[in-house]
Every structure is written in C-alpha cells, then in structure tokens.
Amino acid sequence: MTTLIAEDLLLLLLDDRKGTATSSHVDVALGGALLLELALDEAVHVRERTSIWSGAKVAAAPGATVADPVLAEALRRVAERERSASDLVNRLGKGARDALTARLAERGILRREDDRVLGLFPRTRWPEADGRHEDEVRARLAAVLVQGLDPDPRTGALVALLHALSLAPSVVDRGGVPARDVRRRAKQVAEGAWAAKAVQDAITASTAAMTAAITATTVVTAAGS
C-alpha cells in the first residue's frame, strides 16, 4: 500500500486503541512531513540563507506537479509565494489531520468513531482498524534505529521527523537497546548524508521549523499555567 510520509507519521502519533493523538504537536509535524515529501519529489527547494538572521525560504520548483491530491494542495500553497519553512510547516499542517485520517479510514487502516465527552461535547476518534501497515512502518524504523541499517529516503525522512519530535525511542521495539542509543542513532540519521543536498536542506529547514514551533507552543503553555 502506498502512503504518504505524513500518513505514516500520523499512524505513529495516534493511540491505536483510543484513536486520539499521543502528541500535542501533530499538526506542525504533519506540515513538516508534507514539506519533506515535496522535497523528496523535487517539487520544492530551499533557498540558501542570506544571513544568520533570516530563516530558510522555500519555493516551488518551476513546473513541478505531484499526483497525490493532498500533496498537490500542499504544493499549491507553497507555490503561492516564497515563504519561510517555519511559516509553511504551520500553514501546511492546518487541516492535514482531518484529510489524512479520513483517507486512512477509507483504506481500512483506521476507523471513525463519533461520541460525546461527558455526553455533551462531540468528539471524533480514529482507532486502529488494520495494523498491518503500521507494523511494517515500525519494522522499517526499527531496522534503522535499532539494527543500524541504512535508511531509504522515506524512512530517513520519517526518522528525522520523529527526532524533531523527540519520539524516536517510543515508536520502535528497542529490544533492550537503551533509549539514549536510539536517540543518538535518530540524530545521526537526521543529520546524515543518505539524502541529496536539496533534500537534506529541506530536512534541516523543516525540522528546525518544527522544533521552533514546538518550543514556542511549550513556552506559551507554560506561561499560561
């Protein structure tokens, strides 16, 4: 089954039984995943920073097209005008969760459950319906993070995203390998030379933007508590 990197990431970020997100940063993570997939498809490129004060800018590649409708919508937003990676991971993440969960449910991977919290507030949950694809994703991640195998581009991008979210040790069966070793391996993959420079630039820009957005959210939450 062909899935987007964002779909694989979303499956990892949903509780299989409850169908709710296990991270409060799902939307920005999905935005980063969509941006990375566009980079892997050579549909976008990251411009060199002109100064230490300016963030990385992302633009659509001339004439770029993608077949997947979710990716096509993401590319349309990128093509509107050149924007910073930090702007794009937030912009692309808006609405992505709804689109991707609905599509995964159509494919029989998730199932939709509607209920009410305290009998009053409507809620939609997306528990697992068929875990075979997610099991395959976790197995590929374990091969890279635990066994030390070289990643293919999609798995490498997924590892980089999980590293930015500080979740790499929690999504694989570590088989006794210490969490710190998995984190170290994830960092090594995220910064590694397995990808072409254009993709590596996109990984660096996207994960840096995700980290900044997560940090900003954490600071605001802490200040309001």
Describe the protein's architecture and organization.
The chain is mainly α and about 220 residues long. The protein has a single domain, classed as yeast vps74-n-term truncation variant fold. It has nine helices and five strands. The protein has helices at about 5-15, 25-40, 70-80, 85-95, 95-105, 130-145, 155-165, 180-190, 195-225; strands spanning about 45, 55-60, 85, 115, 120-125. The strands form two sheets. It has a three-stranded antiparallel β-sheet with strand order 1-2-3. Strands 4-5 form a two-stranded antiparallel sheet. Strand 4 and strand 5 (about 120-125) form a beta hairpin. Helix 1 packs antiparallel against helix 2 and helix 4 packs across helix 9. The radius of gyration is 17 Å and the shape is globular.
Blueprint (SSEs and pairs):
Blueprint (H helix, E strand, L loop, with lengths): L4 H9 L12 H15 L3 E4 L9 E4 L8 H12 L2 E2 H9 L2 H11 L6 E5 L3 E5 L6 H14 L7 H12 L14 H12 L6 H28 L1
Antiparallel strand pairs: 1-2, 2-3, 4-5
Helix pairs in contact: 1-2, 1-7, 2-4, 2-7, 2-9, 4-9, 6-7, 7-8, 7-9
GO molecular function: phosphatidylinositol-4-phosphate binding
Membrane topology: Peripheral membrane protein
InterPro entries: GPP34-like, GPP34-like_sf
